[in-house]
């Protein structure tokens, strides 16, 4: 069953590719399917006739039998499929496709609660009236990761030390991913609860990676992309407006008092924490940027220019 599913997925990928090529498929161009990259992650997907949820909490998987599951949450509806994943750190996960309904939160006063978000300079994010500090664990884990990777590179190919070193690296990666997900879930939930509208810079996350060429994206960069995506999904699910402000909008350079564009630019702008405009107003760089993004987002929202 798992093999048939793989073939069906490949078929879907080809169908999407050719439809995209002929121009009959909406959305961005679809690339032809690529060979799967070798990785420590393995998975199988089973549709409705391949698994059964037992009353005693076990999961019956075809050809495997009953498997004990530690449920992270009750399923909101009957799942249409399950994907069983073994991650590189050797942990197994069951992930279900379920249907849920959007649950709009009670509406808040727009003017009082709308916020701009300036992502990823000195702090993790700058919001209206508060900042989210960069979590320290990224740095700590990155250090650990480098040490483990050095050990791995010194281990002889095919040796059992190498296998162990590889698992150690995978475990650190897994831990970083868990912490990151947890952090992002908590922060985005708080934002969605507090704000009726969220205005954020449209990060070009793909571009951010390619600019640096082949060098791996830092843990921080990766997490910003995930933060933006998670926030967008939550806004949609809980009935909050999300407006993306053009990433070339000069949020940092513009003076929020007189609209002149005289603030710190480029690399210099990353270092400077506060600046004085020719109009005499002293700005905290981050707060000024947030205010500019908020105003621009509000303008786009009012003009109906917001892309949804
Ligand atoms: Zn000014």
From TrEMBL:
Provide the Cas12f1-like TNB domain boundaries.
Answer: 225-293
The keyword Ribosomal protein appears for this protein: no
Which InterPro entries does the UniProt record give?
Cas12f1-like_TNB, Transposase
Bias (Basic residues)? 22-40
What UniProt keywords apply to this chain's record, in alphabetical order? Answer: DNA recombination, DNA-binding, Transposition
* Keyword RNA-binding (UniProt): no
| Probable transposase IS891/IS1136/IS1341 domain boundaries | 96-208
What family name appears in the similarity comment?
Answer: In the C-terminal section; belongs to the transposase 35 family.
Could you identify this protein by its name? Transposase
Native organism:
Streptomyces malaysiensis subsp. samsunensis
Q: What lineage is this protein's organism placed in?
A: Bacteria, Bacillati, Actinomycetota, Actinomycetes, Kitasatosporales
